[in-house]
Amino acid sequence: MSHLSFFTPYEEIRKKPGSLFSIGCQMRDEEGIVVCWETKKEILEKITPPCFKVAGTIVNAYIITMPNNNFGLGYNETALQIPVIYKGVPGIYFMSHFLYGPGALGGTFVGREMAGFPKKICEDISVSRLNNYFHGYCEKDGVRFFDIEATLGEYNTPEAAVLFAPNDACKKNIGTMYFIKWDLEEDENGRVGFENARLISNEGDTTYSQWIPANIKITLQSTENAPWGEVEVVRAIGGGYCKFENLGSSCKVLEKLNAQELEPYMMTSHYDCGYISAYTERKF
Predict the structure, then answer these.
(1) CA-to-CA distance for 172 and 2, rounded, in angstroms?
(2) Do the beta carbons of residue 70 and residue 20 sit within 8 Å?
(3) Beta strands of the chain (E only): which ranges?
C-alpha cells in the first residue's frame, strides 16, 4: 500500500481513455418512461428563475434506470423539466431531480458539482413493466410524490406524436439544457448565502434505440423537499417507454447572474429543508 498517495499526477487523472476526466460523462443502457403534461403557465412563471422566459404550459418528466455509466455505480433517477427560452434559444431547465440506488450519492455529486443539476437523494424510485403495462413511482419523506401508470401502444393525445417525433425516430437528438451554478459561501458573520452565480448552457445528445408510445396517468403529491404537486396536471399529453444512451455533451458559461436574486428559486430544488429550518437531525 506504500504506493498509494493523496497526490495524483495530472497525467494519471486523464490516463484512462474512457474516464470522466478524459471524455466527460457517458451513460448507456438507460431505460424507462418519459412523459409530458399541461399545467398552468402562472405556476411555471412563479417557480422558474427570471433569467428565462417560460416557453408555454407543457412540462416534461421521466423515471428511468441508469445502470451503466463511466463515473460510478448504477442508480435510478427522476426529473422534472420545464421548457424555457433564453435570449431566443429554446432549451430545457431542470426544475427538480432525484436519484436512488447504489450509485446515487456519486451521481448526485458529479451532476451537481460539474453540471449544475438540481440533484438530491430520495428514498425510492421504482420502475416496472409487465407486457404493455408500466408503473413507476418516486418517494421522498415517506410520500409518493410522482406516480406514473401507463399502457403502451398509443398516446393520450395527437399532440404527443408531434412533441415526441424526434424520440420516435430513434436518431441522435442534440438539445440544449440550461443550468445555474453558484458557490455556497459563509460570510464574516457566519451566515451562509449564494455567491458567483452563473448560467450554464449544456449541449447534449440522446440516442434512442427504442420508443413505444404510452397512454399515461400521472399522480403528483408534495412534500417539503419535493413539492411536485405544485406543478398540477391540467391534462395528460402522453409519454413513451424508451431505451437510450447519452455519450456526449459540452458546457459553457453564458452569463453571470445575481446570486441573491436566485436564492428563492433554488433552495427547495437543491437542498432539503433542514438547511433553512434549523433542523438538528437530518437523514441527508
Answers:
(1) 47
(2) yes
(3) 27-38, 53-54, 58-66, 68-69, 75-86, 89-100, 119-121, 124-130, 133-140, 143-152, 172-186, 192-220, 235-246, 249-257
Looking at residue 71, its amino acid is F
Q: Tens digits of per-residue pLDDT, 35-85?
A: 999 999 999 999 999 999 999 999 999 999 999 998 899 999 999 999 999
Confidence bin at 274 (pLDDT 50/70/90): confident
**Closest residue by Cα to residue 203 from 173, 230, 170, 229:** 173
**Distance of alpha carbon 274 from alpha carbon 205, whole angstroms:** 36
- List C-alpha distances in Å: 243 to 133, 212, 252: 16, 9, 28
229: Cβ contacts below 8 Å, ≥ 6 apart: 145, 220, 221, 222
Residue 140, amino acid: K
Strand 119-121 to strand 89-100: parallel, antiparallel, or no bridges (unpaired)? parallel
Kind of pairing between the strands at 27-38 and 68-69: antiparallel
> Looking at the DSSP assignment, which residues form a beta bridge with residue 183?
195
Q: Buried (b) or exposed (e) across 261-279, using 16+ Cβ within 10 A?
A: ebeebbebbbebeeeeeee
Give this prediction's pTM. Answer: 0.93
Residue-wise pLDDT tens digits, 228-238: 999 999 999 99
CB atoms inside a 10 Å sphere around CB 77: 27
Contact 105/75 with Cβ under 8 angstroms? no
HSE-CB at 133 with a 13 A cutoff on CA atoms is 2
